[in-house]
Amino acid sequence: MNQGQSFTTKILDWYSTNQRPLPWRNTLDPYKIWLSEVILQQTRVAQGTAYYHAFVNSFPSVFDLAKASEEKVLKHWQGLGYYSRARNLLKAARMVVEKHHGKFPNNYNDLLTLPGIGPYTASAISSICFDQVKAVVDGNVFRVLSRYFGIDKPINSTEGQKHFTSLAQELILGTPPGTYNQALMEFGALQCKPHSPVCGSCPLSDSCWALQHQQTSLLPVKRPKKTAKNRYFNYIVPIGDSRQTVLVKRTQKDIWHKLYEFPLIETQTAVEVSEFLKRPDLPEWVDRSQLYLYNDKPWLHKLTHQHIHAFFWIAPNTQPPKNIRNPIASLHKFPVHRLIERFLHKFFD
User: Fold this and answer.
1) Which of 84, 177, 244, 276 shows a CA-CA span of 20 to 30 A to 198?
2) Cα 268 to Cα 143, 262, 303, 304, distances in angstroms
3) Is 37 a catalytic residue?
4) What is the rounded distance in angstroms from the CA atom of residue 211 to the CA atom of residue 199?
């Protein structure tokens, strides 16, 4: 038995006794596999399971999801980030219903035509649901293969991704592709973890290159990320009569597109209270004499390429236009991003 065959056999043997009883492993329904894969691209299994159940309960089939409003889908996605993925869920569901009569395409290439479905998700659905021999390559797979075979090609380079995809494909070796893909990802999640891998009980320890060369902490290799851009968000939080405030929808092509937030003024840097009170772009309905800063230090929210420094300015006794007022009691119904969600819980609860 060569090295590749030994690797695949041991991974499958390990999986047969160590796999977690996850809800999406009890089905071959491509709709549910699709939901689970998209959600798990955003979060860990522990948190993602709750989102998965919420989606399946509210939208039991692709027909139910296709009929949903965008705001309802965004509300279900709230807290996961990368909200374009939630919008693509809805677009893809509608395409499956309208163009494919509610049936997901049964092959890799056709799955790629659906909004938001890339090589990873198409490989997962086509292999698990339709037994197509397509290897899934995610962070777990990169890590296991780079450590076991001693590969130092950067996983975030075109060359590296092609190399790992080709290797993962070769290692399927005639085994059930869906089971192989899930086994390899599960092994990376539970055994060959990013930090503190469980090498002592690893079935691959006797032939793992990284372990033998004491390189587990150095693999896989990643090219340095670009420096994140700092942005300074100043939210105006009106508190009006009859327990009312204002949430507005983000319409510009930017982060958090179509989510709701308080009226926003973005500045180049953090500004002093005295300077902020003089700004000509403050809403005319704000009483400057009563406006005060809620948080002396900014709330830092880190995104992939941006760091948001958020300040919340409380504007009591305001009378904003009636057409933009929202009862405070109804704020929980709006899809909001994590910063606003955190503020709502902290300030209004």
Assistant:
1) 177
2) 39, 19, 18, 19
3) yes
4) 8
What are the tokens at 307? 């760091």
d(CA 139, CA 189): 9
- Candidate list 37, 159, 261, 266, residue with the active-site label: 37
What is the C-alpha separation between 275 and 7, in angstroms, rounded? 64
Alpha helix locations (H) across 59-115? 62-67, 70-77, 83-100, 108-111
Q: Cα dihedral angle (194, 200, 201, 202), rounded to 10 degrees?
A: 50
Which residue in this structure is represented by tokens 């590969």? Answer: 151
Q: Is the dihedral of CA 314, 318, 323, 325 positive or negative?
A: positive
The contacts of residue 144 (CB under 8 Å, 6+ apart) are 184, 187, 188, 192
Which pLDDT tens digits describe the chain residue by residue (349 residues)?
688 899 999 999 999 999 999 999 999 999 999 999 999 999 999 999 999 999 999 999 999 999 999 999 999 999 998 999 999 999 999 999 999 999 999 999 999 999 999 999 999 999 999 999 999 999 999 999 999 999 999 999 999 999 999 999 999 999 999 999 999 999 999 999 999 999 999 999 999 999 999 999 999 999 988 889 999 999 999 998 778 999 999 998 899 999 999 999 999 999 999 999 999 999 999 999 999 999 999 999 999 899 999 999 999 998 888 888 899 999 999 999 999 999 999 998 7
| Location of structure tokens 């049964």 | 106
DSSP string, 232-282: EEEEEEEEETTTEEE-EE--SSSTTTT-EES-EEEESS---HHHHHT-TTS
With CA atoms as reference, report the closest residue to 245 among 285, 191, 207.
Answer: 285
Q: Looking at residue 349, what DSSP letter applies?
A: -
Structure letter (DSSP) for residue 227: P
DSSP structural state of residue 222: -
Q: Whole-angstrom Cα distance, residue 109 to residue 106?
A: 9
